[in-house]
Design brief:
One of its GO terms (molecular function) is manganese ion binding. Belongs to the germin family. By secondary structure, the chain is mainly beta. It is built from three helices and ten strands; from the N terminus they run E-E-E-E-E-E-E-E-E-E-H-H-H. The strands form two sheets. The protein has a five-stranded antiparallel beta sheet, with no helix packed on it.
Length: 188
């Protein structure tokens, strides 16, 4: 039988294998359309070890991605996982940015049945460029891939990143960044 006990600090708390049930290895509801009536027009429904305890230590997880027409899954990164995405409905523009010093924008249009890979740790996104709802499934090679949404991280940190640091980081005059406006969009 699968041993979901572990000693790694990356793992969730261990469960006594004698107490494991089928519910530790299943998740219901991934067939349900995610609510995309939000500012970005998308919803990510995760299936990580927090949702399926039996994934603990297995090095895999997945997400369902629903995107309304013109909606996006904003710029984000998974610090502990590579992601492979397959489109089930709709048309998506996908892309990632390579690491320094090149910072190349690699992009592709995906239709139903197409697959795209986002390498571990690289900033990436998905945008629905079709006229109908889009659905994709992403699989990740970590039970706990993490997600860092770039705008939320930069402008929604608590406490806030000082304006002079943001101005230097973006290499602009600090009066050109509407920091208070940006921060108000991402406060928790």
């Amino acid at each position: 039988m699968h041993n979901i006990a572990c000693s790694s600090s990356k793992c969730k708390a261990c469960k006594d294998p004698k107490l494991v049930t089928a519910s530790d290895f299943s998740l219901t509801g991934l067939h349900q359309t995610g609510n995309t009536s939000n500012a970005v027009g998308s919803r990510v429904t995760p299936a990580f070890s927090a949702h399926i305890p039996g994934l603990n230590t297995l090095g895999i997880s997945m997400v369902r991605l629903d995107i309304a027409p013109s909606g996006i899954n904003p710029l984000h990164t998974h610090p502990r996982a590579t992601e492979i995405l397959i489109v089930f409905e709709g048309t998506l523009e996908v892309g990632f940015i390579t690491s320094n010093p090149d910072n190349r924008h690699i992009t592709k249009i995906l239709e139903k049945g197409d697959v795209f890979v986002f390498p571990e740790g690289l900033i990436h996104y998905q945008k629905n460029i079709g006229k109908s709802h889009a659905v994709a499934i992403g699989t990740l090679n970590s039970q706990n891939p993490g997600v860092i949404t770039i705008a939320n991280t930069v402008f929604g940190s608590n406490p806030s990143i000082p304006s002079d640091i943001l101005a230097k980081a973006f290499q602009v005059d600090k009066n050109l960044i509407p920091v208070n406006v940006m921060r108000s969009q991402f406060k928790i």
